[in-house]
Amino acid sequence: MPNIFGIFQTGVSGLMVSQAGIDVTGHNIANVNTEGYSRQRLSIETEIPLLIHPGPFGRGAKVSSVLRTYDDVLAKNLRDSTSNLRYYESLQQSLESVETYFNELEAGSGLGDALKEYFNAWSDLSNTAPDKSDEATVKRVTLIEKSETLIQKIHDGYQSIEEVRNRSDENIKEYVKEINDLAENIAYYNFQIAKTETGGDHANDMRDKRELLLNKMSELVNIKTFEREDGQMSVFIGGIAIVDGSTANSLYAVENDENDGHYDIYWGAHLIDKAQVNITDKISSGRMYAELKARDDVLKGYQNTLDEFAKNLILKTNQIHSLGQGLKRFSQITSTNGVENPSYKFSEDPGKLQYDINKGVFRITVYNSDGLKTDDFDIEVDPSKDSLNSIIEKISQADGNAGGGIIQAYLSEGGKLKIQVKDGYTFSFSEDNSNILAALGMYGYFKGTDAKTIELNDIVKNDNSFIATSKTGEPGDNQIALAISNLKFNEVFDEKGVTFDQFYTTFVSQIASDKKQVDTFVDAKKEAVNQLTLKLDEVKGVSLDEEFTNLIKFQKAYEANARFITAVDEMLDRLINGTGTVGR
């Protein structure tokens, strides 16, 4: 049978347990609004009993541990879902910026309207071409203005997308810095948790703080975690450790020259201040992936579409314009496009142009000082055999005098072709089934090869009388201006079978469709995250009602144990002060 002092200790153990319960309950209540806090609970077990006969006799209770209420599996699922949500939200923001510019709802504000006005200006000019009247002059000026407006809209559209891409780079650089800071802090808490839990205690609050850091990192990039036996957490990005126990590695934003200087993401080992491994393709969710995806796929795809639009506008217009005549013919002209090396064949990379050249013939027509045609020089072109140098030689020899006859050709700066005729003569181009004139930009209306470089050719910009409206230069001949104006009706995009207007409309519709699809994903992911958040809060969240109940429970237990100790104390008093007094 236990002695009276052992019974006293049983009451004391009850007081200690009740006091600890009140302490834990108070901690929960104090942190009811603390971000990332997980509810804690007391684990109570009985003390080792007194093993005597009859018995055994219980010796009270003790606190075995203070446990953190958490669900690791649910938390990982929530991190993954949140990472996907942040991906779609960031992608949504990028698409919103692009959609704002390509808004064709406001009349006269978009590229589509500028395109219509451009073709209308050609149509108006065709009604008076090649007239030298004041009305025709005004129409040529108007055409130049509408052309420059269209070019500016194309440039602005391309640049607006590029600005969003550059903003993505700024965000990526900031995210890299933020991830590195988070990694350092996670590594710090890993060390503290391991040190605390080595003695068998639970680092509940530090685990909450580490979990909060993991959640923030998962919003930026896809992560996987692995907890060691000592409580330290290893964190991986696509299988590469960004945190390894108490060691934090680093990410680097490194310019990629092959991608116009946009950033790639590199990993670097601890204590080596140098980018080592390119992990860009290992990033698959989070805000950083959204910036990479938008920058290199979605937005770059939009730019490629604008490039295709501008490239075809340049090519189809120049193919017609180069074979026409304005109010003036020229005595010399230099192409706007050149080759890297004029010695290489057109079919070889250093000798290639941005536009394809076919096997065929182009014709140079020469006129005397009276404006009468004197010669037609047909120049044969075979891209598998000819180079720019060989074409120069053929042109110079076309009149039978390679050393200085009526017509000569030269290699100009930048690998370009220059053609000139003898004083008193002028020339034009009248036929071309090889596409070399348009490929070289020889007497094209536009120069450049894409949305970024499209411009008006200097020859028409500086003197609008060089705008080609006529095929022959004869009065009433408006074939060239009419043919260019009719391009708006032609299915110029051969593979797609659409007109310029249809192509651009499809492009704008694609942007709107992409944005709408992402909006749908955002809504769906938000719902999933909300559901997982509610489920995790049910596990780890602090309920004030439950804590008030626990507070009353531990308070009553404390009072009961105190009353128990009072009873034992009275027994001791009777034993000590009330015995050994026989006969008093």
From TrEMBL:
Species: Deferribacter desulfuricans (strain DSM 14783 / JCM 11476 / NBRC 101012 / SSM1)
Gene Ontology terms: biological process: bacterial-type flagellum assembly
Domain Flagellar basal body rod protein N-terminal: 8-37
Broad class of where this protein is predominantly found: other
Keyword vocabulary terms for this entry: Bacterial flagellum, Cell projection, Cilium, Flagellum, Secreted
Cellular compartments annotated: Bacterial flagellum; Secreted
GO cellular component, one term: extracellular region
Family that this chain belongs to: Belongs to the flagella basal body rod proteins family.
Family matches, as InterPro entries: Flag_bb_rod_N, Flg_bb/hook_C_dom, FlgK, FlgK_helical
Keyword Transport carried by entry: no
Protein name: Flagellar hook-associated protein 1
Flagellar hook-associated protein FlgK helical domain residues: 96-328
Gene that this sequence comes from: flgK
Molecular function GO labels: structural molecule activity
A Pfam entry, by short name: FlgK_D1
Ranges where the Flagellar basal-body/hook protein C-terminal domain occurs: 540-577
Membrane-spanning residues: none
